[in-house]
Design a protein that fits this description.
disordered N terminus, globular, 10 strands
């Protein structure tokens, strides 16, 4: 029993320690034989102990925080939330504050500076997905396919590890190669590492072989997670819905339209409901009341900050959970709230970096679409911010087109306006699944089915008492093809979420072009689709000579 316990303690150490390279030395394997014997045996109690030690933190790979990559210390280099958030700032639809506040470390990304996509500055964007691959390989070293066949619980953990492994490679492909369906099919993929230990530097696989690995792993993971199902009461676990979401997302990127549709249909059967109008952020009609203090919008009433109000949440993290823990250098524990909340004490509020909507996109929104009320079109009177624990405060005027989608005048668990930023975090929601399914239908020539899927979303986003919105009566969608309708609704529904506009544009071959915008003030106005492909970081090419072949 001592050897088993020592092995478990060591495995816990493995799980909580990360590396920054895909090529790593093996762990001390003194107890490997005993571990494998347990996982292939019949003692479920000991087996569960091993499994928890190995895989208890796999879910946090969907919201990594406070990583350290070669001395980078600011948030955009160390957190998954910010790696996604900065991509929101590099598209057509999100404006980063205003002229007077454009100099923070987000400003360079918003200004589309080329240095951010060049070899010397892309290491963090590579290292984080690589960490996911390493974490998964540590678990898969022990949780073999053979062991999984003998135990449902082992199979579930194997499914989680395969999902994380595939997710890491999917992110690398999305970031560092051309989109498979937009010129990348015959191109390069990634060096594929499927075992934890001393690995020779891998050859660079083709894009096709890389996506084959991703899809094969996710399909096996889906089979493994059938017994888990959709655990809607456990927001932060890797369940069947999370795996099918990844499967649908990867299928969309590599053009397996039917696989995407089938996965989405399964998810939406389990998640048929949408966020209610009264929980979909703040309302512009209440802006004066928010500013003068006669009305509050609590985080508990905003479905983007309170998971219990969000029937779309497939995965998320409650305030204080691993994956939504305090972030170094901030005054609270939800970094997205810190960046996006116009009334908060962070960069998205007091520091005047409010994410704002480009007026060109705003103009495409139907008046009966309640999402249009998530944006204020006039400059506000000064809002009073309390910006630190000592109670210091100051006033700031909020610019037109600032978002109220992610607004809250008070964070979770407080009864008065203050400096804190505590909130829940939504990681995956079902509206994105609706859009993936609608796009897969449109991309495969099934326009009627695409519109049917969109109509369900539009019905859910129709203002109370208004005529129900459809693809046929939505004013901003007149004369569009089915695919163009889907593309517009991606931009509206997932505005400023997960960098999706940027990555979608990369798939759709749509460049960034801000030249006709009256809201954007960036120094650089355009970004080509080719320039959306990040360069392989120098730290990787220096250690794997196969990149130069």
């Amino acid at each position: 029993m001592k050897k088993i316990l020592y092995g478990v303690v060591f495995l816990i150490t493995l799980v909580f320690n990360s590396c920054n390279s895909l090529d790593v030395a093996p762990p001390n394997n003194i107890t490997d034989e005993q571990i494998m014997e347990i996982l292939n045996g019949n003692d479920e109690e000991k087996k569960l102990l091993i499994l928890k030690a190995l895989g208890s933190t796999l879910n946090t790979n969907f919201s990594l925080t406070d990583k350290a990559y070669l001395g980078y210390s600011n948030n955009n280099q160390t957190t998954q939330v910010d790696q996604e958030f900065i991509r929101n700032l590099m598209g057509n639809d999100v404006v980063n504050g205003n002229f007077s506040t454009s100099g923070d470390y987000h400003g360079g990304f918003y200004n589309l500076l080329s240095t951010h996509r060049q070899t010397e500055n892309t290491w963090s964007m590579w290292a984080m997905p690589a960490d996911m691959i390493i974490a998964a390989n540590k678990v898969l070293l022990y949780i073999t396919e053979e062991a999984a066949e003998k135990s449902t619980k082992v199979k579930e953990y194997r499914g989680s590890a395969l999902a994380v492994h595939a997710y890491g490679y999917m992110l690398l492909m999305e970031r560092f190669q051309k989109a498979y369906t937009n010129g990348g099919k015959d191109g390069r993929g990634m060096p594929l590492y499927t075992s934890y230990g001393i690995n020779p530097t891998a050859e660079i696989s083709s894009a096709t072989d890389t996506y084959k690995l991703i899809m094969d792993e996710l399909k096996e993971a889906e089979s493994c997670m059938k017994s888990v199902g959709y655990t809607k009461d456990k927001y932060d676990d890797i369940d069947l819905g999370v795996v099918q979401y990844l499967l649908a997302r990867a299928a969309l990127w590599c053009g397996e339209w039917n696989t995407c549709i089938t996965a989405c249909q399964s998810i939406l059967a389990a998640y048929p409901d949408f966020i209610a109008e009264n929980h979909f952020g703040g309302k512009a009609i209440n802006m004066d009341s928010y500013v003068d203090g006669s009305m509050d919008l609590k985080a508990e009433d905003n479905a983007f900050y309170e998971l219990s109000q969000n029937p779309e949440c497939i995965m998320g993290f409650k305030a204080g959970d691993a994956g939504n823990a305090p972030v170094a250098g901030t005054t609270g524990n939800n970094l997205f709230y810190y960046y996006a909340n116009v009334f908060g004490s962070g960069q998205g509020g007091y520091s005047r970096m409010w994410p704002r909507i480009d007026e060109r996109l705003y103009a495409k929104m139907d008046d009966n679409d309640f999402r249009k009320d998530n944006f204020t079109t006039v400059e506000s009177k000064p809002y009073h911010y309390i910006f630190n624990k000592q109670g210091e405060s100051d006033d700031r005027t909020i610019d037109a087109y600032a978002n109220l989608k992610f607004a809250a005048t008070m964070c979770k668990g407080v009864d008065t306006r203050d400096y804190q930023n505590t909130a829940d975090q939504v990681t995956i929601r079902s509206s994105e699944v609706v859009l993936m399914m609608a796009e897969a239908y449109a991309q495969s020539g099934q326009d009627t089915q695409a519109k049917t899927a969109l109509n369900k979303l539009l019905a859910a986003r129709t203002k109370a008492g208004a005529t129900q919105l459809t693809c046929d009566n939505y004013k901003g969608m007149q004369g569009m093809t089915a695919l163009q309708m889907v593309q517009l609704q991606w931009r509206l529904e997932m505005w400023c979420e997960k960098g999706l506009e940027y990555y979608n544009n990369k798939r759709w071959n749509i460049p960034v072009d801000r030249t006709s915008s009256n809201t954007h003030f960036s120094n650089v106005k355009t970004l080509s689709v080719d320039d959306m492909v990040l360069e392989i970081p120098r730290e990787e090419t220096n250690t794997n000579p196969n990149w130069s072949k």
